[in-house]
Amino acid sequence: MSGIDSRGYAFPNSLVSTDWVAEHLADSNIRLVESNEDPLLYASGHIPGAAEVDWTRDLNDPLRRDYLQRDGFAVLCSKLGITPETTVVFYGDKNNWWAAYALWVFHLFGHTNGKIMDGGRFKWANEGRELVREKPTFTASSYIAADRDDKVHRAFRDQVLSHLDKQGKMIDVRSPEEYNGTRLHMEAYPNEGALRGGHIPGAANIPWARAVNAETGEFKSASELKELYENTAGLQPKDDVIVYCRIGERSSHTWFALKYLLGYEQVRNYDGSWTEWGNLVGVPIER
């Protein structure tokens, strides 16, 4: 049991509550993983026993714009004492957008036994629960990773172009200002290189944070999410959906909401997102 009221979710066990995490801190079959945007947060205090997975250092190739390969993923999991049978519970800052990103990357290697702690760091800290600075040590595992599979959960630019030709469903999860082209980046963030502003033609704009309750950082109920994505954006559960943002981190949060909370079978994250699309020569852009 996840300790989460199902709230009508398709896969309620994909979320766990802060209570559930507190009750399972000593469970050797569970590995807590904190993933943040702010690299200083983990060192300043984290849930006892939680490992850190940094999105740039641990998940990305240091040279190419791509993710680590099979051997690198095996080394990462082995270092953290994760086996293929380990349930990995992700949490972090920014209402879990980086936690969802880490979970999504784990999915690329077939490690789908992952969950998100609903509410993330924000909820855990606001409840006055313990945070420690001691970095845990783990007995290394012998993790044999599968080859990375980019077919099911990931979309590339040529696939997005094909999807566009078929008038497939797309969700742009960025801010309205980024979507309409008046900004090339999130407010208070640096421009990550896009030369043009706007959105992919036909994409609906549902900012990622609308999927959570601002007061607690928890995901909204299934009925609220259906109102958001189906009534507002016109999606249907059988649709083939591509989601995108700037670099794929915010859209991984929406990927999780659609796939696991609403049960959509075909959802792909276009992680090239606007930093790629806004620089491509000749691709269509709307404002």
What is the strand and helix layout of this fold?
Blueprint: E1 15-16, H1 18-23, E2 30-34, H2 41-44, E3 51-52, H3 70-79, E4 87-91, H4 97-108, E5 114-117, H5 120-126, H6 157-165, E6 169-172, H7 176-180, E7 204-205, H8 222-232, E8 240-244, H9 249-261, E9 266-270, H10 273-277
Parallel strand pairs: 1-5, 2-3, 2-4, 4-5, 6-7, 6-8, 8-9
Q: How would you characterize the largest beta sheet?
A: 5 strands, parallel
Oligomer description:
single chain
H-E string: EHEHEHEHEHHEHEHEHEH
- Structural class per helix/strand content? alpha/beta
CATH topology of the largest domain: Oxidized Rhodanese, domain 1
Sheet with the most strands: spatial strand order? 1-5-4-2-3
Q: Measured on Cα atoms, how large is the radius of gyration?
A: 18 Å
Report the average pLDDT across residues: 94
Tell me the total number of β-strands. 9
- Overall body shape: globular
Number of domains: 2
- CATH homologous superfamily title of the largest domain: Rhodanese-like domain
Total DSSP helices: 10
CATH architecture of the largest domain: 3-Layer(aba) Sandwich
The residue ranges in which pLDDT falls below 50 over 5 or more consecutive positions are none
**What amount of the residues lies in strands?**
5-15%
Q: Regarding CATH, which class of the largest domain?
A: Alpha Beta
| Fraction of residues in helix | 25-40%
Question: Could you tell me how far the N terminus lies from the C terminus, measured between alpha carbons in angstroms?
Answer: 45 Å
